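Continuing the batch. This is chain 6 of the set; chains 1 through 5 are on the previous pages. Same settings as before, nothing changed between runs. Recording input and output for traceability.
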Amino acid sequence: MNVQRVLGSGPSTLVFDLLVAAWVVLCVLLGITVADAAMELTALSDGVRDAGGAVVSSGEAIGGVEIPVVGEAFKDVGTQISETGREVAGGGEASRESIEDFARVLGFAVAAIPVIPVLAYYLPPRLGRGREIRAVKSMRSAAGDDPLFVEFLARRAVEQLPYRRLRKISDRPWLDLLEGRHDELAKAELRRVGLIRTRLGQQDS
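Output for chain 6:
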């Protein structure tokens, strides 16, 4: 599809702008949904972290038991249990951070992969068309009601418009140019670049 040709009129440009914007919003929402779903996996790491905390508490409780003769042994066992619990809790916390990072990257990828090619294909001609419109507006403002400018637009229409569109304007556009009938061709050129107007003297709609 030739985007430059599709962007040849205001209504078609508006439709494509809305379609591209809707596609971007849809992809972003999909990325957010996927990221949120991946974030649900943090419940597993939270369970591991909580279990580690419980083990730490158990170890501290065992280490705090004071029994004659074997008291030190209980303290050593309690210390080892607490250290194991801290390692488990730390592993759960690290796992949670990894899952969160993965969820963000996955959500961004899901949103960006389908959006970037569309924007890379659509934005350059869209921005170029905007520059063309500004240039035509500037030329028209400088020309005012100069009939030579109207003739210039008419000749541009004959050069740029497809034959099927020219046939809708005139059966013999070459005679229109020769005999000075420029208005309809000039308006067709303004429509081609997206300046939709009913008469050459009216403001753009």
